[in-house]
Amino acid sequence: MEHKLPKLPYDYAALEPHFDEETMRIHHTKHHQAYTDKFNAAIKDNTLLAEKTAEEIIRTISEVPKEIRTAVQNNGGGFVNHSFFWESLTPEQKEIPKELKEALEETFGSIDEFKEKFSESALTLFGSGWVWLVLDGEELKVIQTKNQDSPLTEGKIPLLNLDVWEHSYYLKYQNRRPDYVKAFWNIVNWEKVTDRFLLNK
Ligand code: MN3
């Protein structure tokens, strides 16, 4: 199947002032589009992969033929990770639903301690990659992945992610990654994260 760049669930300017319009537009129409195109190009001659969803392909990356595996891991990963990221954000943030709030408090001590751990993970990630809240079995964990690698490949269930590639913040924040991470907390779609949690716990 031909994988299509998904539409954003809000306008490019909707996450202002936290994530700026120009960055959102370029990130979606250039970066995400490029991952999508290269992913499609990499798998276009493979009839087996054509029947799988992008998530399934990333989950079972070891079954992808060696000669296209790196291209699929990078571009299929980029395709899936960004689609997941846009869905994790909202211009109309609400309180963290009780089910997720209690689970985060139980695991990390408090919501502030969870945010601190996730932020710290984003700030210490060297080079390009992502920070994630995942379910690893029954356990909530904060993890990093390099480049466009996905927790799906490690058998983990992603609940929330943050892009820490420079292209996601450089236009507005330049080298100030801490400010970008701080801004992120104002636009997390907690209802979406909770849906993912309840579906998989
Ligand atoms: Mn990106």
Polypeptide structure, described:
By secondary structure, the protein is mainly α. It has two domains: 21-87, Orthogonal Bundle (Helix Hairpins), CATH 1.10.287; 98-200, Iron/manganese superoxide dismutase, C-terminal domain (minor pseudopilin epsh fold), CATH 3.55.40. The chain has helices spanning 21-43, 47-50, 54-59, 66-87, 98-108, 111-124, 170-173, 177-184, 190-200; strands at residues 129-136, 139-146, 157-163. The chain has a three-stranded antiparallel beta sheet, sandwiched between helices. Helix 5 (98-108) packs across helix 6 (111-124). The chain is globular. 31% of the residues are buried. The model has no long low-confidence stretch (mean pLDDT 97). It binds manganese (III) ion. Residues 27, 31, 82, 163, 165, 167-168 line the site of manganese (III) ion. Residues 27, 31, 82, 163, 165, 167-168 line the site of manganese (III) ion (MN3).
Q: State the total count of DSSP E strands.
A: 3
- Beta-strand content bin: 5-15%
Overall geometry: globular
Which ranges are low-confidence, i.e. pLDDT below 50, for 5 or more consecutive residues?
A: none
Instruction: Give the rounded overall mean pLDDT.
Output: 97
Task: Give the radius of gyration.
Answer: 17 Å
User: N-to-C terminal Cα separation, in Å?
Assistant: 30 Å
Share of helix among residues? Answer: 40-55%
Give the number of domains: 2
Give the spatial strand order of the biggest sheet: 2-1-3
Which ligands are bound? manganese (III) ion
Main sheet: strands, sense, barrel: 3 strands, antiparallel
